[in-house]
Amino acid sequence: MSADSPKAADSSQIAASGRRMATGTIQVFLAEALLLPTGLLTAAFLTRQLGPAGYGLLTLATTIISWIGWSITSAFTRTTIKFIGEAEDWQAIASTVLQLHLLLGIAAAAVMGMLAQPIADRLGEPGMANYLRLFALEIPIFCMAYAHRSVLVGLGKFSQRAIATASRWIARMVLIIALVSVGLSLWGAILGSIASALVELIVCRIYVHPPLINPSPFPMRKLWGYAVPLFLLAISLRLYDKLDLFMLKLLGGTAAEAGFYATAQNLSLMPSLFTLAFVPLLLATLTRTLSAGNLTKAQHLSRDAMRLVLLLLPFAALGSGSASEIITLLFSSTFLPAAPVFSL
Fold first, then answer.
1. 234-241: long-range pairs with CB below 8 Å, 24+
2. DSSP 189-248
3. What is the spatial distance between Cα 175 and Cα 193, in angstroms, rounded to a whole number?
4. Longest dimension (CA), the chain
5. 57-76: pLDDT as tens digits
6. What's the total number of domains in the chain?
7. Taking a C-beta distance cutoff of 8 angstroms, is the pair 50, 299 a contact?
8. 193-231 confidence digits (pLDDT tens)
C-alpha cells in the first residue's frame, strides 16, 4: 500500500499538470486565435480600402517592424520563462527583463528612424520611409508588452496572459477600422496598430507591475548569458521566415504583388498561432516539473505535446482545396492572384 501511494500521487500530479497546461493552452490559443477572425476582418476591410498596392505597402512596413520586435522578444522569451518559473523572488528578475526590453526597443526604434529612407529606397518604395518612421514607435511598446506576457506565463498566469492578448487583437481591429474609416488611410492603420500594442501593455500591467525604473539586484548579464545564442537564432529564423516577401520586392516585384502574397500569408496563420500559444506554456510547465525533480511527468507531457501537432494536418488540406473560394469570399475577386500561393 505504501509503495503504491507515491505512484498514485505521481500519476495524480501528472494528470493535474497535464490538465492545467491543456487548459492554459486552450485559453491562450483562443486568445491568439482571435487574430484569425479579427485579422481577416481587418484585412478584408483594408484590402478594399487600400487596394493591392496600398495593402502591399502596409504589409511591407508591418513585416519589417514586426521582424525587429519579434527578433528582440524571441531571444528572451524562453529565458524569461525559465528564470521566472524557477525563482521565488520573481519581481527582481521581471524588473531586469522589462528594463532590458525597454532599452533594446528604444534603440531599435531609433535605428529604424535613421535607416527608414535607405530601406525604403532599397525595396523600391521610397514613399514608405515615413510609414516606417511612424511604425517604429510600436517597437518599444511591443517589446514591453511581450516581456510582460513572458512574465505572466512564467508565473503560470495563463488566463491573464490570454486576456491581455485578446485585448490587443480586438482593439487592433476596432482602432484600425475606425481610423481608416475617418480618412487616415495607411496612417490610420499604423496608428491603430501602435495603439493596440499600448492597450495590451496596459492590460498586462494590471496583472503584474514590477518596477520599470528602480535598479534591480538581478544582473542583466545573467540574462545575456542564456539569451545571446537564442538572440542570434531568433534573428536568423525571423529573417528566414520573412525572406520570401523581401525577396519578392528586391527581385522587382510590385507593391500590388506584395499585397497578393501577403494576403495568402495572412490566411495561413493558424499553425503559427497554435505554436505561439502552445510552446511557451509547454516550456513553463516543463520547467516547473523538472525543477521539482519529476522527470517521468516531464516525459509524459513532452510525448503528448508531439502527438498533438498531428491534429493540424486535416485543416491544412481543407484550406488548400478551397483556396480560390476563400480568397474571393474574404477579399473579393481582385485578390484572386493570391489563391495559387495560398493553396501551396
1. 234/70, 234/71, 234/74, 234/75, 235/71, 235/75, 237/74, 238/67, 238/70, 238/71, 238/74, 239/67
2. HHHHHHHHHHHHHHHHHHH----SSS--SS-HHHHHHHHHHHHHHHHHHHHHHHHHHHHH
3. 8
4. 76
5. 999 999 899 989 988 888 78
6. 1
7. no
8. 999 999 999 999 999 988 888 777 777 777 776 666 666
- Residue 219: phi and psi, rounded to 5, are -75, 140
d(C-alpha 175, C-alpha 141), whole Å? 16
**How far lies 201's CA from each of 195, 223, 272, in Å?**
10, 22, 22
Question: Which residues are CB-contacts of 342 (< 8 A; sequence separation ≥ 6)?
Answer: 263, 264, 267, 268, 319, 320, 323, 326, 327
- All three cell numbers of 258, joined, read 506584395
Please state, in angstroms and rounded to a whole number, the distance separating the CA atoms of residues 88 and 83.
10
CA distance 305 to 327: 32
What's the predicted TM-score (pTM) here?
Answer: 0.77
Domain that holds residue 16: 4-343
Residues 6 or more apart from 99 whose CB is under 8 A from it? 212, 216, 220
Q: Position of cell 514591453?
A: 144
Give the sign of the dihedral formed by CA 241, CA 113, CA 209, CA 31: negative
Nearest alpha-carbon partner for 319 in 341, 303, 292: 341
For residues 305 and 99, the answer to whether their CB atoms sit within 8 Å is no
